[in-house]
Amino acid sequence: MHDDLDRLRTKNNLFLLLKHYADLAGPSRETWQDRLMTMEGMESQELSKLHGELIAFSWIEQNTGNYSVLRAGAVPGCYRVTLAGLRAVQEIQAREAVADLEMPIVELKPVVKRFKRKSQEQELVGAAG
């Protein structure tokens, strides 16, 4: 499982795609979501491979052949995040939050203040004034 999460953590586009489906599952994980057809800076073939990885790791499941409405250039009701996918997103986000909170330990050194002795001349002037 940790190797899977490491892959998700190191492959940012894979994580973003899974997070997309996890975010859509907010109201109901049972609802089938339309396939994300484009991602900024990514070719369609690369996006297809990412979908394949998410399916292979059981982070999303695929619903093929049961379309309610066909639309040109879209694949409606095709994917939904699995419980394992939701857990993976939550675990990575929790680790990132902890990493953001962790501060480097800084060793504090005591500050030693040194006072100068007043010269006898300053003491005499101060007493005379």
Strand ordering within the main sheet:
1-2
Helical amount: 40-55%
CATH architecture: Orthogonal Bundle
Global geometry? rod-shaped
Helix segment tally: 5
The profile of the biggest β sheet is:
2 strands, antiparallel
Low-confidence stretches: none
Structural class: mainly alpha
For the record, what CATH class applies?
Mainly Alpha
Task: Give the amount of beta strand, in percent.
Answer: under 5%
Describe the structure.
By secondary structure, this protein is mainly alpha-helical. It has one domain (2-107): Arc Repressor Mutant, subunit A. 49% of the residues lie in helices and 5% in strands. The protein has helices spanning 2-10, 12-24, 44-56, 83-101, 120-128; strands at 60-62, 79-81.
Question: What would the keywords be for this entry?
Answer:
mainly alpha; Arc Repressor Mutant, subunit A; two-stranded antiparallel ribbon; 49% helix
Short description:
The protein has 129 residues and is mainly alpha-helical.
